[in-house]
């Protein structure tokens, strides 16, 4: 039978399919010091899981081991390529800053500008490359910025710029 008609799931279960590598984000890859620490902890955890599977010869363990190896390669590449800029401080929004903004309805939101790999909008961590992140970059307290969104532009006032 031609290998063209073999499901990738079957190949992976037999350890013959490595799967796709996760792509790195566009360069420059920036991460905060806290983000770097989380990624290093995640790498250590992945290495520990891989070591725990080292003696298991079952096919399922082989597939899990391949997944962990891909994750480990991605984390190592990411940590090697990533830059962790020192916090700039001051009153201008830059990478790593916490920014409090207010919209026209008086609702306040607080965001931290971080790298793509550590962005978590629910926790207030937004990518510095996102539309909101780009709108906030280089703004100062009291500035009005326009957040361009598909649903319509929103004007925000920068209330505070803080640093860890």
UniProtKB/TrEMBL annotation:
<feature type="domain" description="Transcription elongation factor GreA/GreB C-terminal">
    <location>
        <begin position="91"/>
        <end position="162"/>
    </location>
</feature>
<keyword id="KW-0251">Elongation factor</keyword>
<dbReference type="Pfam" id="PF01272">
    <property type="entry name" value="GreA_GreB"/>
</dbReference>
<keyword id="KW-0648">Protein biosynthesis</keyword>
<protein>
    <submittedName>
        <fullName>GreA/GreB family elongation factor</fullName>
    </submittedName>
</protein>
<feature type="region of interest" description="Disordered">
    <location>
        <begin position="1"/>
        <end position="26"/>
    </location>
</feature>
<feature type="compositionally biased region" description="Basic and acidic residues">
    <location>
        <begin position="1"/>
        <end position="21"/>
    </location>
</feature>
<dbReference type="InterPro" id="IPR036953">
    <property type="entry name" value="GreA/GreB_C_sf"/>
</dbReference>
<dbReference type="InterPro" id="IPR001437">
    <property type="entry name" value="Tscrpt_elong_fac_GreA/B_C"/>
</dbReference>
<dbReference type="GO" id="GO:0003746">
    <property type="term" value="F:translation elongation factor activity"/>
</dbReference>
<dbReference type="InterPro" id="IPR023459">
    <property type="entry name" value="Tscrpt_elong_fac_GreA/B_fam"/>
</dbReference>
